[in-house]
Amino acid sequence: MKTIFLTVLFILSNMAFGQTLKLDEDYPNEDFNYILGNIWWDKIFTKELSGSRVTILEQSDPLNTPEGLFEGYGGVISNLIISIRNTGEFAYSNLYFIKGLIAPSILEVEEVSNYEKIKIVIEFQDKQFKNQTQTFLIPSLH
User: Fold this and answer.
1) Residue 122 in contact with residue 103, Cβ under 8 Å?
2) Is the pTM of this model over 0.70?
3) Does any domain span residue 35?
4) In what order do the strands lie in the sheet with 52-60?
5) How far apart are CA 114 and CA 106, in angstroms?
6) Is 3 part of a structural domain of the chain?
7) For the segment 108-141, what is each residue's pLDDT rounded down to a tens digit?
8) For the chain, does the N or the C end have fewer beta carbons within 10 angstroms?
9) Helix, strand, or coil (residue 86)
């Protein structure tokens, strides 16, 4: 009984004196704070491909929205942040940005060229608010 009591006491004492986490108010990279603070977290797009996972985040960019572009309402330019991550045991990723978009939407994400590239088709509006479509080919990770 004494052994059980000492074992429990030892475990509890280690829990009580474990690592203390510290909350820092400042982060040295202001761009990182700006990006995270302006992501539309409810608009996350993810797709599993054969060996890669694609995640696309939309980030509003009020600092780079030209004055008067959205006259009459409070619209802002958006950026797309694209993460291509392999799905293997040792995961790593590549990060891409598409900047300066108005009302972007993802139309298609698929692998092409023997799974060597990922095709991403987006629709957006130009500065005259006419719909445009553009295709991007990004190297796949395997």
Assistant:
1) no
2) yes
3) yes
4) 45-48, 52-60, 78-86, 93-112, 117-125, 131-139
5) 22
6) no
7) 999 997 888 999 999 999 888 899 999 999 888 7
8) N
9) strand
pLDDT for position 131: 95
How many domains in the chain? 1
* pLDDT for 6 beyond 60: no
Is 111 a domain residue? yes
Average pLDDT over every residue of 70-86: 85
Mean pLDDT of the chain, nearest integer: 81
d(CA 124, CA 85): 25
Cβ partners under 8 Å of residue 77, min gap 6: 60, 61, 62, 64, 65, 66, 69, 99, 100, 101, 102
Q: Which has the higher per-residue pLDDT, 5 or 98? A: 98
| Region at 115 (left for phi over 0; alpha for psi -120 to 50; beta for the rest) | left
For residue 82, the enclosing domain spans 23-139
Task: Look at residue 16 and tell me if it is in a domain.
Answer: no
- Record the tokens describing residue 121, joined without a space: 């088709």
